[in-house]
């Protein structure tokens, strides 16, 4: 299933615009694009919501016919337990996380211990925990960690754009992680020369115009055959003013949805 995530609304949610988009507003914008899935990912206000606010958000998603996934950072057992409770409120079948968070940087041994504490509750609830590929951890190490559990409820959130920062090739990341993928983050990316030809900027690009070989990902991972959701997000740089930035963000979202639908 194709879905949108909060990173597709990054600037619309931000305090750099006069009227930041609410979570319900993002839900409504998602339905307006005829998309049925939304991933609330790294959305700070979620953890500050009261129980009533969480209930209202979950009810709004249900009223709009949206399936919800959640996303956070960190794998401390108490943190994962908190997000499992949130997942149950939203009837979410997947929680995406990352080994590192602003509060912790566990060793692989510590990460394994924490996951062994937290994972049984996810298995009992039928919720999948998907750990994202990213630059702080070699993809091979993440694959080894996840595969050591042999659990259907622990997988990988595949985002091959992240690993370029540790000089991994996106294609290699896709091929290493393919068998364990439980979720896909969809965005294109490219290098551009900085002014004066002094270095490069690595940033987002409209889907289908950058370096991401998405057909290779589709062929290798086969997400549609395996029921793996594809979540649209962006690395859109600030475009100089709020109006241009928001307009461009919305254009990139439509472009990505159209691209994905053209490959169905």
Keywords:
alpha/beta, TIM Barrel, eight-stranded parallel β-barrel, 19% strand
Query: What share of the residues lie within helices?
Result: 40-55%
Mean pLDDT: 97
From the alpha carbons, calculate the radius of gyration and give it in angstroms.
18 Å
Look at the structure and name the CATH superfamily.
Divalent-metal-dependent TIM barrel enzymes
- The general outline is globular
**Number of helical segments with 4 or more residues:** 11
Total domain count: 1
- Which strand order does the major sheet show? 1-2-3-4-5-6-7-10
> Given this structure, which CATH class is correct?
Alpha Beta
Sheet with the most strands? Answer: 8 strands, parallel, barrel
Organism: Microbacterium aoyamense
Keywords: Carbohydrate metabolism
Pfam families: AP_endonuc_2
Protein name: TIM barrel protein
Word description of this protein:
Keywords: Carbohydrate metabolism. This is TIM barrel protein. By secondary structure, this protein is an alpha/beta fold. The protein has one domain (2-262): Alpha-Beta Barrel (TIM Barrel), CATH 3.20.20.150. The protein is built from eleven helices and ten strands. It has helices spanning 10-13, 23-32, 45-48, 51-63, 77-90, 108-125, 139-147, 170-177, 214-221, 223-226, 242-262, and strands at 2-5, 37-41, 67-71, 94-97, 128-132, 154-158, 181-186, 188-193, 200-205, 229-232. Strands 1-2-3-4-5-6-7-10 form an eight-stranded parallel beta barrel, surrounded by five helices. A two-stranded antiparallel sheet has the order 8-9. Helix 7 links the parallel strand 5 (128-132) and strand 6. Helix 5 runs parallel beside helix 6 and helix 8 (170-177) runs parallel beside helix 9 (214-221). It is globular, with a radius of gyration of 18 Å. The model has no long low-confidence stretch (mean pLDDT 97).
